[in-house]
Amino acid sequence: QVQLVESGGGLVQAGGSLRLSCAASKNIFSINVMGWYRQAPGKQRELVATITRGGSINYEDSVKGRFTISRDILQNTVYLQMNSLKPEDTAVYYCKADLYLGNYWGQGTQVTVSS
Q1: Which partner from 25, 63, 66, 71 sits 20 to 30 angstroms from 82, CA to CA?
Q2: Where are the beta strands (DSSP E) in 1-115?
Q3: Do the beta carbons of residue 108 and residue 6 sit within 8 Å?
Q4: Is the Cα dihedral 105, 109, 112, 113 positive or negative?
Q5: 64 CB contacts (<8 Å, ≥6 apart)?
Q6: 21 forms bridges with which residues in the sheet?
Q7: What is the C-alpha separation between 2 and 102, in angstroms, rounded?
Q8: Taking residues 63-71, what's their average pLDDT?
Q9: pLDDT digits (tens, 9 = 90+) for 23-52
């Protein structure tokens, strides 16, 4: 089991940047995959970016070149650097951890991008 706590959301103008953090309660090297997902009002939750234990990274097409996922193993934290934000990036952003025994979600952090 793992607890995840997201932070870093907020209100930003289009073109601005935010960095989200996801602090895990256990060594993230023991987690198969960690990822960021988002859910906009009236839409399904969608993948934004993932990073595997081995360091392989995957991005959803609309964020490629703008968002960067990274991790600090010593801090047990995964980050999502979001640049060139657009109004369509507005959503609640969730951190997810995939373990052998199950998947775990954080509580989410709101990101609002104004035009």
Answers
A1: 25
A2: 4-7, 10-13, 18-24, 33-39, 46-52, 57-59, 67-72, 77-82, 91-99, 102-105, 109-114
A3: yes
A4: negative
A5: none
A6: 7, 79
A7: 10
A8: 98
A9: 999 998 889 999 999 999 999 999 999 999
